[in-house]
Amino acid sequence: MLIQTLSRLVGAAIAAAPDARAGAGIDDLIQSIFGPVADVLSAVVFVEVPLPGGLSAPVIVIWLVIAACVFTTYFRLINLRGFLHGYRVIRGDYAEPNGPGEVSHFQALTSAVSGTVGLGNIAGVAVAITVGGPGATFWMIVAGLLGMSTKFVECTLGVMYRRQNADGSVSGGPMYYLQQGIAANHPKLAGLGKSLAVFYAACIVGGAAGSGALFQANQTYAQVFAVTGGAEGPMAGKGWLFGIGLAILTGIVVVGGISRIGRVTARLVPAMAAIYLLAGVAVLLVNAERIPAAIGAILHGAFSGEAAYGGMLGALIVGFRRAAFSNEAGLGSSAIAHSTVRTREPLTEGFVALWEPFIDTVVICTLTALIIIVSGQYLHSGLDGVALTSGAFASVFPWFPYVLTGVVFLFAYSTMITWGYYGTKAVGFLTGESVLAMNLFKVLFLAMTVVGCSMQLGSIVGIADAMLLLMSIPNLIGVYLLMPVVKRELDSYLARLRSGEIRPVGRNTE
To answer: Which domains are delineated in the chain?
Structure first.
């Protein structure tokens, strides 16, 4: 049934483009249809403002940078002082097996991390270094550290204003705290809150298609294409066929909801992260003598560049943009997964969420960047995206691209199943939990994996970045309005923690 549905969608796309050049393959045809869409979206979302020195910066990136700085300051470096407590919550010291919700703190974290630890960590970092130079790595790390505070606020709000459904499932995330949170705390702005919630839900549907399906599928196929012989190999021109297979595997988990996703990611995320980290450390050990020079290149590029002001600003913009794509701080998407946690204390999940950007950006993205820089591949290879990262690994271990292919698949698969869930919950919000509408979205989401395997990287990055970053506009407006609510909740929680009213109850990560 799924294959038949996907085949009909592909057929409809072909029929909708009668002017495509004769003899063009399905992959070329899909690119000709969706490529212009990416160009339009990028032009709208990445509007730039002029800066001193004749330079400019995307408004959306400035928006995210300011928000991360505000939350870090307002909550007095919660990204640092709450880090250890977050670890204790994750390992189960404050578990509530009988609390309202669907998954444990550990499963909520792995579900959210599976949505962020994806090909943005492999391909996205390569794009950042290609465009912004090694200095972009430094600003990615800074963005990750600041983004921890943003995640803290978003995910606390996600639990505070989540909805318990009649069947025992939970619906939460920005759609709910924008509508219900703003209405409860700012009654005169209730209409604004509802409008922001609807706009956000529409954005996340697009973000699920762009980042969750298109980008992940594209770069997975790119790696398979490369290791099987490229243009002369058996996968040449077969992106659409590969996409159908990937869609079927994704659909098997997506239809099971957050409980199944939580069980899968609780095992998949630690395993895939361990494989990648071990492989990355091995590459760095072989190139140990080059690591100091790589760190020097990162720091030099971050603060100087060829023209000090322009180089620094360019690296900062690219670094923050790619960090936003990687860890999604400010976008609110992770709050959808975190809101399903079993707890009566919303703040506990805020502390758990601190670890998400740290794992995603500070650890995994930094490792990827160092691998690329010590290899020197970005200077002369002409590669981009996942191919550049693969080339960096291959410069040390010629056989490693085959191992990386498996890692790429795991990263992409974990991200796709989580974003399929995010998009489904957004559709549920928009349609009053219509089962038909949510099932139709799942079919559309899986169809986008076919499209993603048939498009060029430039178009994919344009669509993915645009749809993701657009989500930050309604989300951060709401978070600004509600951050005093979180501040009061935080003060109460810390006071009860100090008094012993809140105390460890044991460990439970299942």
So the answer is: 28-498 (1.20.1740.10)
